From TrEMBL:
GO MF annotation: an example: transmembrane transporter activity
Gene Ontology cellular component list: plasma membrane
Keyword tags: Cell inner membrane, Cell membrane, Membrane, Transmembrane, Transmembrane helix
Domain of life of the native organism: Bacteria
Entry protein name: TRAP C4-dicarboxylate transport system permease DctM subunit domain-containing protein
Annotated TM spans: 28-47, 59-84, 104-128, 140-167, 173-198, 218-237, 243-262, 283-307, 319-349, 361-385, 405-426
Pfam families the UniProt entry points to: DctM
Length: 432
């Protein structure tokens, strides 16, 4: 029965995706087909609908549309150029300063927007042509943009951590955020170290003096946007407000910033901004509902327990088990977006991780880190395709320049996986 259910689930899902059916519909239909193995059609349909509705009837999920709306307001508020200028100040006059600017800009913008694609497009769209103009190889510039874009997805406020907290049964959002800070910054630093070495070897130019003339104006315009990150995290850590309340505060702060401070959004644009937020929220909520149905179908047919036994049967060595989990998650990340991957595979891998004594916060961080890495990994990582398009280079042209960055990211991934202190020391220090 388990083997039959697994084959139906995987094959129906794969076929539907292959013919172009949206992923949420593919998940729901394949899950229903699996449930029909055991239940009659009327009970199966009723139970499935009930499960999908119940899965999104959660107070914690209110944070998701609010953070999405905040990110869209910031994205439409024209802060990318301001963050680029601010990043130039931080990058300094060192070899590869423009590539460092790209990395810092992606990290800041990605954390604010919770989207690697938005960061790659907004920051990379400015920085890649600028680097080429200053004598940088365009393929190298595109590789830097691609490799650094997902860093912001693990720097809070991250909707991925919020979804993981909900699906994993209440893992501390504050602890996940703090661990994500450390890992996200380390990701950015890893890319910058590789960029520095390559830029020094190739003798790429640094930012010219005239770039940093109006330092006060640059800082004054950029810091309010960056403060959003610290306001959200500071409020959660001090107990002033919860993660859900923080998401609403993020919307209010973003609106005040874009409408009154930067004056880059008008009242006429608000309906369009709201429509974008509603559309994206609808997509994510449908994914959550469909993914919960898939989790129900797998649990109902005993698939997670069978997979857990299979993985644990490979070896009883935690090092080997973690390596297998990493490889599987990397593969999943190349073919599936982060949100649905979290929703589907957390119930499968969480019991395995806890079974070998992995801390839930540590597991959540390297789980999401794997999925983020997968977005820029061949053959079908979405971040790789978008970054190549933004850089106006073919994927096969950018793969070779990406190799040293892949190596650095993989080393970071292994360190985070096998040394839990990296992701846990800050949460533990703060008593989370």
């Amino acid at each position: 029965m388990i083997l039959q259910a697994s084959l139906i689930l995987v094959l129906v899902f794969a076929v539907l995706l292959a013919v172009g059916i949206p992923i949420a519909i593919s998940i729901a239909v394949s899950s229903l087909a699996t449930i029909l193995l055991i239940l009659p059609i009327d009970i199966a349909v009723f139970s499935s609908a009930q499960k999908m509705v119940a899965s999104i009837d959660s107070f914690s999920l209110i944070a998701v549309p609010f953070f999405i709306l905040s990110g869209i307001i910031m994205n439409n508020g024209g802060i990318a150029a301001k963050l680029v200028d601010f990043s130039k100040l931080l990058a300094g006059r060192v070899p590869g300063s423009l590539s460092h600017t790209n990395v810092i800009g992606n990290s800041l913008f990605g954390s604010i927007s919770s989207s690697a694609i938005a960061a790659s497009t907004a920051i990379g769209g400015v920085m890649v042509p600028l680097q080429e103009k200053e004598g940088y190889d365009r393929k190298f510039a595109a590789a830097v943009n691609i490799a650094s874009a997902p860093a912001g997805m693990v720097i809070p406020p991250s909707t991925g951590f919020i979804i993981f907290s909900l699906i994993s049964g209440g893992t501390s959002i504050a602890a996940l955020f703090m661990g994500g800070y450390v890992v996200g910054v380390l990701w950015a630093l890893a890319i910058m170290i590789v960029s520095y070495i390559i830029a020094k070897k190739r003798k790429y130019p640094v930012v010219t003096e005239k770039t940093n003339l109006n330092v006060k104006k640059i800082v004054w315009e950029a810091v309010p946007s960056i403060l959003l990150i610290f306001i959200i995290i500071g409020g959660i850590l001090t107990g002033v407000f919860t993660a859900v309340e923080a998401s609403a505060i993020a919307v209010v702060y973003s609106f005040i910033l874009a409408f009154f401070f930067y004056k880059t959004i008008t009242l006429k644009q608000l309906p369009h901004v709201m429509a974008q937020a509603v559309e994206m929220t609808g997509v994510i909520m449908l994914l959550i509902a469909a993914s919960s149905l898939m989790s129900f179908a797998m649990a109902f047919t005993g698939i997670p327990a069978a997979l857990s036994s299979l993985v644990l049967g490979i070896s009883d060595n935690p090092i080997i088990i973690l390596l297998v989990m990493n490889l599987v998650l990397l593969l999943i990340g190349t073919v599936m977006d982060v949100a649905p991957a979290i929703l589907i595979f957390t119930p499968i891998f969480m019991p395995i991780a806890t079974g070998i004594g992995i801390d839930p916060v540590h597991f959540g961080i390297f789980f999401i880190l794997n999925l983020c890495v997968g977005t820029i990994t061949p053959p079908v990582g979405t971040g790789l395709f978008v970054g190549s398009s933004v850089g106006k280079v073919k994927i096969e042209q950018v793969l070779k320049p990406l190799l040293p960055f892949y190596a650095a990211i993989f080393v970071l991934l292994m360190l985070v996986t096998y040394f839990p202190q990296i992701s846990l020391f800050l949460p533990n220090l703060l008593g989370l």
